[in-house]
Structure formats: structure tokens, C-alpha cells
Amino acid sequence: MFDTLSERLSGIFNQLRGKGRLTDADIDATARQIRMALLEADVALPVVKTFIDQVKQRCRGAEVSKALNPAQQVIKIVNEELIAILGGESRRLSLAKNPPTVIMLAGLQGAGKTTLAGKLALWLKGQGHEPLLVAADLQRPNAVEQLRVLGERAGVEVYAPEAGSGVGDPIQVSRDSLAHATRHARDIVIIDTAGRLGIDQEMMAQAAAIRDVTNPDEVLFVIDAMIGQDAVTTAEAFRDGVGITGVVLSKLDGDARGGAALSVRHVTGQPIMFASTGEKLTDFDVFHPDRMASRILGMGDVLTLIEQAETVFEEEQKERMTQKMLGGESFTLTDFLEQLLAVRKMGPIANILGMMPGMGQMKDQLADLDDKHLDKVTAIIRSMTQAERDDPRIIKGSRRLRIANGSGTTVNDVNQIITRFFDAQKMMKQMGGMMGMAGGRKATK
Ligand code: GDP
């Protein structure tokens, strides 16, 4: 599963290795290649389009990270977009307030419904539930028997029409099963419905009738991950014909290209809730979009590395700032600005900071830190030359006027910022001394 797609994607990312930065042309070329890879994997066209638009926009956008190189950035974005297309978070089954909870399974014949019914029952039993399996697939020869065998293996009761009672009516069986569940204290009813090889009116009408008499809490649409482009029409037919609340992907262990898995969430608008991965009853799991995305990318270790690089970078940045702050005089106007901007991002933390011992003055610094004021400070500092930012002592009369004009402020504003900066610098020095940092006194210019 996904082997070809994984290979194609790593080839594309490899081409980006060693690039210092990505041009628009690089991004376009990469997007085009990813698009081809997805289409070849049988992902539905509208899904591919949404995906590529999003990836392109984000690659172009302001997400320039200093921690990651361009190849890593693209991998990170593609990974996040894959997770999004697969549904983001996993969703849990919604259980009825008044048991029994009714779970109805729908899908084409051969999709893996009956097998799934057994798997789901075993899994729910493991969670402490008392499920009841209901054989409402009276179309396919042997479906009832197959369910009985599965039920026996899972240790779960199967409700089915009496042998020899004729064909039986799946709608009646479904209705009666609810009363049976209540009588026998079964808290979850799993109804296995009939499928056809293709979608047809009669089958949809029967599924809709079963839905109407059982009023299910969940209608799970079981789809064979191997069906490729047909996934879209099938999913749409079930979405419109029966209405579904969740999707189960079956046969994820096969060597399919993966298109159905990537399309079905987008097409149905419903989350993929479970994955069926083999013929054994235990080959079943809750579906996790993030795990699936990292499997598609086939680079779990690279993703971990990206995460670590980002964390380490953040920590280094903080460390560098602390050193500077405590270094007293080496604390420049550029740092001052960086610090003000960082504090603003912290929001209410600024208040807490003001309450800390020795930080009283900081509180005054922060008091008028509204957006307008900060814009002004930013403009003033950005209008200074590097030499002025490094050593504001050289900012005398004519320089002050030039800065005021350059930033659209007054000389008075500039004076205020410079005075405030000297105060902050003094405070940093004191704090450095207070904390016993030798660096606080060493840093002289
Ligand atoms: P139904 O017609 O929808 O009830 O489908 P079945 O449950 O009878 O499954 C059809 C075939 O697919 C059976 O041979 C199952 O053993 C097989 N099958 C079901 N789920 C899986 C799966 O997750 N992986 C594999 N490899 N085979 C499966």
C-alpha cells in the first residue's frame, strides 16, 4: 500500500535537498510533480486540486523557518496537508445515551463488511461492551453463516433469522434485533447489511429502510481501499442514498495505490474511523490520520528530526536572548525590539512577568505596550542604521531628526524610546549582577 506514492514523493523531496532557498519556479515544479504522483495513486481530482493549492500557498507563504532547510519545510507542509486530507484528528464512536447503540454497516459486496462486523464486535468487547451482531445481509449466500462463524470466534452473539424460516426480511430482522438486544442487555448492535457488486436502487432503498427502522447512531461506510477511482462514485452514492456518519477503510494491507484512502474523507465529508488490515479478526485498528500520513511519506524518522530541529532552534533562540539580556551593555536596540515583540506575543504572561521580583520596572516597560505604540517603536528602531542600533549613544540631534522623519514620528518620540532603552539596558545589567552572571560585567564595549 502506498509504496509507489511514497517512492515518488521521496524522489521529489530529494531533488530539493541542498537548495538554499526555494524560488517560485521550484515550488511550481515541485507542486506539479506531487500532483502527478497523487493522480497516479488514483487520488480523486478535486482532492488533488485542494491539496496542491494548499501546499503551494503554504510553501509560498511566510512560513520561512530558520530551523528547517527548504526540503524539510516542504516535507513538513506536505505531511500536515496529508493529515488534514485524511481528516485531522481521529473521531470516537458516538454511543447512544440510552443503549443499545446501533451501528449500521453499509458498502458494496466484497468491501469487507461482514469481516469488519466481526472485528468491530471483538474490539468493542475488549472495551467492555456487550455487542450483538445482526445478520441483515440475506442476499449473499453464506453471509449469515459467515457472520455466525465470526461471531463464534469473537465470542459475540449473532442474531439471525431462524434456519429454515425462508429468505427472511432484512428490515424485519433489523427491527427485531433491537428488542432482542434490550432483552439480553446488549449495549451495542452491529447490523451487517447486504451489498451488491455495483450500486443499485434496490440495495440503497433496502439500506435506507433498515436505517429508518433502527435509527442508527452510526452508519459506517465500509470501502475497499483497493477500488481506485470508483471510490468517489461509490462513496457519493452511499453518502446520498443512505447518509453516512463515518468511514471504514478495509484491505489496507493490500498493495493498492492508496487513492481511495486519500479521497474518501474529502468526498464523503465524514471521518475515517477504523482501518481493517487483514483477514484475521485482530487485523483492525482505530484510524489515525497522522500515522497514515507518515506511512505515506515513508519517512517517520525525518519527521521526528524536523520536530526536534524546530524545538532545539526555539530553545537556542531563548538561550541566546537570555545571555544577551543578562549581558547588560551588549543588549542592543535590535534585541530590545525583538524582546518587546516576543513579550507582546506572550499576552497575559507579560502581567505575570511584571509581578516577579526584580521585574517591577519591566511592568512599566510593558504598561503601554499596545499595538499602536509597538508599531511606532518598531518603525523608529527600523529607521536606525546598524551602528545606531548597536550603540545608541551615538544618536545625537541630527540623527534623531533623521530617524523621526524616516519613521514618521517626532523627535520627542525618538527621545522617549532611546531613554526607555537605556533604562532597560541598565535593568538588564542589574539583573545580570543579581543573578551572579559573570557575563553581565564582562560584556563591555
Ligand atoms: P462483504 O461482502 O462486504 O461482507 O465482504 P466480506 O467481509 O465477506 O469480505 C470480502 C473478502 O475480503 C473476504 O474474502 C475477506 O476475507 C476479505 N477481507 C475483508 N477485509 C479484509 C482486509 O482488511 N484485508 C484483507 N486482505 N482481506 C479482507
Keywords for this entry:
445 residues; Four Helix Bundle (Hemerythrin (Met), subunit A); 3 domains; 20 helices; RNA-binding
Describe this structure in words.
There is one protein chain. This protein is α/β, with parallel strands linked by helices. The protein folds into 3 domains: 87 residues, Four Helix Bundle (Hemerythrin (Met), subunit A) (Up-down Bundle), CATH 1.20.120.140; 187 residues, Rossmann fold (3-Layer(aba) Sandwich), CATH 3.40.50; 116 residues, 434 Repressor (Amino-terminal Domain) (Orthogonal Bundle). It contains 20 helices and 8 strands. Helix 3 packs antiparallel against helix 4 and helix 7 runs parallel beside helix 8. The two termini are 63 Å apart. The structure holds guanosine-5'-diphosphate. Guanosine-5'-diphosphate binds next to helix 5.
Query: What proportion strand?
Result: 5-15%
Instruction: Provide the residue-averaged pLDDT.
Output: 82
From the coordinates shown, what is the CATH architecture of the largest domain? Answer: 3-Layer(aba) Sandwich
Order of helices and strands: HHHHEHEHEHEHEHEHEEHHHHHHHHHH
In CATH terms, what is the fold-level topology of the largest domain? Rossmann fold
What ligands does this structure carry?
guanosine-5'-diphosphate
Task: State the oligomer.
Answer: single chain
Number of distinct beta strands:
8
- Low-pLDDT stretches are 348-360, 436-445
| End-to-end gap | 63 Å
Task: Describe the main β-sheet briefly.
Answer: 8 strands, mixed
Structural class: alpha/beta
The shape is: elongated
- State the domain count: 3
What is the gyration radius calculated from CA atoms? 32 Å
Helix content range: 55-70%
Full CATH superfamily name of the largest domain: P-loop containing nucleotide triphosphate hydrolases
Going across the major beta sheet, what is the strand order? 3-2-4-1-5-6-7-8
* CATH top level label of the largest domain: Alpha Beta
